Amino acid sequence: MTRSASVGILRMDNRIPRIPGDIGNPGTFDFAVTYRRIDGSTNQRVVYERDASLLAPYLEGARELEGEEVSSITTTCGFLAMFQPELASSVRIPVFTSSLLLVPLVHRMIGADRRVGILTADSGALGELHFQAAGWSAADVPIAVRGMQNGPGFRGYIDDRPEVDVELIGREMADAARALVREHPDVGAIVLECTNMAPYAHLVQGAVGLPVFDVQLLAKLVHDATHRGPYGTSR
Fold it and tell me: Most buried by CB count within 10 Å: which residue of 96, 111, 122, 203?
C-alpha cells in the first residue's frame, strides 16, 4: 500500500497553546501531519492517574489513523509511553509514543560512563512503568531526571491553561538544565520527555552545551525512514 507523506498524531484533550515547535502545531514540521484527538485524555488521567481505561480509545485512534494511510503514529504526551507495546502491536506501521524510546540510543552514543539527563513535566509521576514500556530500565541505563512541576511558568502546561508565559518557561527550562548538570556533572546529553518542551530546546542547549533530543526530532527521523528517496532530490 502506498501511504501519504503524513505522520499521524494522537492528540490529548487539552487547551494549552500550541506554539511553533510544539507537536500540536502542524507548522512545527516540514511534512504533513494528521491529528486524532482522544476525548477525555487529560493530563490528570494520563500523567497522574495512569488511567488504563484510556488504552481502548487510543487503540481505536491508532487504527483510525492507520486507515487514513498515515505512515507512522506518535502522541502529544511522553507519558503515553505506558501504552507503547499495545499501540505498536495494534497497527502495521511504526508507532513511537514518546521520546523515552530514544534513551537507550542516546546512552550508547555518549558512553557507559555518562548519564542521560531527562527533563520531564513532573519527576514524581515518571518512573519504571514508562521506562520499561519504552524498552529499558533505570537499572540498566544511567539517568538523571529533573521535573518542571515546581516552575510557575511550566505549571501552565501541567494545569492545562489556555495561555502560558513563554518567556518565563524558557528561563525555567534553561535553569532546570543548568541545575541538572550541576547536580550530575556526568550528564552527556538531555532528552526532553514532554512534547511541550521542544520549543525551548535551543535554550536548554544554550544553557548547558549538550545534545538535546525530543520526540519532534524522532518524528522527523521516522518520517524520513518511511519516505526514502534518491539523494540529490527534494523529499
Answer: 96
**pTM (2 d.p.):** 0.95
HSE of 12, CA atoms in CB hemisphere, 13 A: 27
Tell the residue number behind the cell numbers 505549571, with chain if given. 155
Q: Which residues pair with 73 in a beta bridge?
A: 8, 95
Domains, in order of start, for the chain: 6-97+217-225 (3.40.50.1860), 99-214 (3.40.50.1860)
φ, ψ of residue 180 to 5 degrees: the values are -60, -45
- SS3 category, 80: helix
For residue 16 the three cell numbers come to 494549552
What are 17's three cell numbers? 497553546
Condensed to tens digits (0 to 9), the pLDDT of residues 88-128 reads 999 999 999 999 999 999 999 999 999 999 999 999 999 99
Partners of 131 in the β-ladder: none
> Is 116 strand, coil or helix?
strand
223-230 long-range Cβ contacts below 8 angstroms, 24+ apart: 223/5, 223/7, 223/29, 223/31, 223/71, 223/72, 225/94, 226/3, 226/71, 226/72, 226/93, 226/94, 227/5, 227/31, 227/71
